[in-house]
Write a structure and sequence with these properties.
heterodimer; A: 700 residues; alpha+beta; six-stranded mixed barrel; two-stranded antiparallel sheet; 29 helices; 55% helix; elongated; B: 226 residues; alpha/beta; six-stranded mixed sheet; four-stranded antiparallel sheet; 7 helices
Amino acid sequence: MRESLALIIKVAFRNLWLYRLKSTVIAGLLCMGSFIGIVGLSLLHDVEHSMQDSIISSVAGHLQAYSSKAKDDLALFGGAFMGRADVGTIPNLASLRDVVKQNTNVADFIPMGSDMAMLGRGNELDETLTSLRGALKKGETDIIAQRKDELKFLFLQLERELTERAKLSADKELMDRYRADLNHALEPDFLGTLNALDEEKLLFLDTHIAPISGEKQPIYLMYLGTDIQLFKQNFPKFKLVEGEPLGPGQRGILISYKVRETQLKAVVARLFDELKKRIDRVRVPIKGDVENERAAADLPKQYQQILSSLDRHKADVLSEFLKSIGIKPKSAELITGLKEQLQEFLQVDDTNFQERYKQFYAQIAPKMKLYEISPGETIVLRSYTKSGYLKSVPLKVFGVYTFEGLEDSDLAGVMNITDLITFRELYGEMNEESKKELEAMRVASSTVVTDAAGAEDALFGAGASASVPSVDTHPVETKTDSKKKEILHIKPVISDVFPESEIQKGLALNGAIRLKDGSKIKETRAELNKLLKEAGIEAKLVDWQEATGIVGQFANIVRLVLIFALGVIFLVALVIINNSIIVGTLNRTKEIGTMRAIGAQKSFVLGLFLAETAITGLIGSIIGATLATVFLFTLHIKGIPAPNDIVSFLFSGPRLYPTLQWNLVMTTPFVVSLVATIASIYAARHAAHVKPAEAMQEKE
Amino acid sequence: MSQAVTIEHVSKVYPLGSTEVQALRDIHLSFDTGEFTTVAGPSGCGKSTLLNLIGCMDTPSRGEVYIEGQPISKLGDKELTRLRLDKLGFIFQSFNLIPVLTVFQNIEFPLLIQGGFTSKERSDRVRELMEEVGLSAQAKQKSNALSGGQRQRVAIARALVTRPRIVLADEPTANLDSATGERIIDLMKAVNQSHKTTFIFSTHDPLVMKHATRIIRLRDGEVLEG
């Protein structure tokens, strides 16, 4: 037996050598399969881990709990396009937390609620007027002229808008009045003679012209309301990069670094950033790249943004600086000259970009308003509450935060973090103070509170609703005395602080659960489900992967693609192997027949052909595994740079340093050759069926 | 004298499309141990079919073939293979050596399949036979580096290495020039004498035929003479 095995292997080796071209092709394919398999699965393993780390340590935790009555799935990184996902509510988070915390593997429970809000951005005309007023006060003639130019530009823009609006508006009277006011402001005399603090004219502009202009396009901000102290403790990737942290019981918002950099930064700076990133990170030069060329062409148009935030002194300093680097003004007048200088400065190409980038951030950026929002300022967030009315909440911006390693990521980094009380406010849930005030107003206006079930009773008298089931449990106000027609001014009740106990109870949308042992997600989830069921709490649990929707599924999708690709390679290899054995059988009919004639059993022939495949497979896949090891080892040292933001999220940082999966390296060659060998059984049986009498056939 | 092969009323029919070809018709023959017999006749006379049946590579449609008294018509592929391995040796017209193996390895091959020998036993037997066929010097050469005559010597040694009772040779000299062919026949005859091995071979070369102790002539599947 051992001898015949040795014989089989010996003959197999000789045959492989004899048909070496064919053997090389097969070995090459299996080599490629092993290489792709090992590298692919290793990288996938690493990406899965780093992504898991990204997700668990940024917002998701190991498990997420949310209402079992939710109409949509919880998607922490967004998933519901167009419109908000209805994930239900957790009306009383305290009871959920208490149940969840009974499990010994639960480290913490962090209540959350996220939604979208609009950022009120004010009015460009207002800003320019304020700036003009400042210049008038100081008597800086050239700045005044510059501001007046800007105003005139805005007026002309308004005029065009108004023409469009007049076509659609039903209120002709209002449109005519706007038109008249605007015409007045556009008279050459109006701005022409505005050279001192003319309060009458300024007031006219403030009260008649500014209101015509709408607000700037609102920016939509995602916000996440949470218990910020708990959040900081449980999500180690959280890092404050500017400003100060939000203390316990403080209301306010922490702006996401990524959002601030990409949506709230001056366009001129954003263009510089964009170019810098593409040149340095993606290594695409300006020349020849459509995206870069467009950004470079846009830059010189942004001089206005710089000019409009300078006063005379700063303009002077900047002009001198530009002169010092060889950019001379053509006009003698300061502002016109500076405008020309800036236009020239903003002309960038591959030779001067790095220098200009440095100069911009060193000399120009500090003199201008670089961000729309900065720590210390107060912003207004507006949101449609669940019941559909618009709610505005002013919020102090405390700081700017990011998730470490995920600075560039669009996914984890788009959430602006606020306190849970503010979230409830924007969501439409009232706090104790609001409720009290509303109650006081109700008393004052003699309204009574009824719920939906009682509404008809209140309107039509008792008994009217007997057959009508309850449709809504939200309290509805019913005015009983319609004679009192006082207008209710409901001031938002917003204080800067709140009692800390308020976030311990009350409403949340979902909650993150951090585990002590992250490898036991499944077990703990099952235990928690049991506990929740016993306690009668209507909440369901999803793991981090499910909670992050398509993002969490990414690894699975990639795995499928990889397996598919490997499948195709294997299929091709197997077809070639089978084919070559069958062709080989034809060529070797006499040889096989001779072996059979002189006494070799079918099994011997079968074994011989299988051995040939197995040996080819082993040689090919061991070479593939070796190459994969070398390749991964090189990557391990050098790291793979993340070419874009999504990938940096997957890598949990700007570079991925793959680790070598030794078990994969050791097992893959065997699996590959085993699969190839098993797959060649059919063809090998074909060979074994060659008749011994074939040895006698003379075909020469 | 005991009988090496007995053929009783053997017919062999091959299907050919929708019709049949009668390759052998009611053949009745027996071969004594130690015979040096040739089967002669034109192409298509049934020589090959007869050798295939004696060589246990096929079973008869009717009648029975006995190899040293053992009937073969009921045997399966495994048993027939074993019978070939243990009792029969084969020499082919185009030598049929395994091209990737050396002279030594080709001769050793049946012993390895048979199993149960130590490597010294195998080596002794192979060397002894190499000497007998005059190829000791070529032991390590690949078979495709040899001349036709040398190859047929290797084939003879391979056929004898398991010490078979019967050696079948299918036109052993057809691919050789007449002088070499004659020497091969002489070698076979010498082995036949010294080992008492039964030799049955086909040929249509009159020079070869004259060495035979018995000539069986076939035509259209029937025995004309013998």
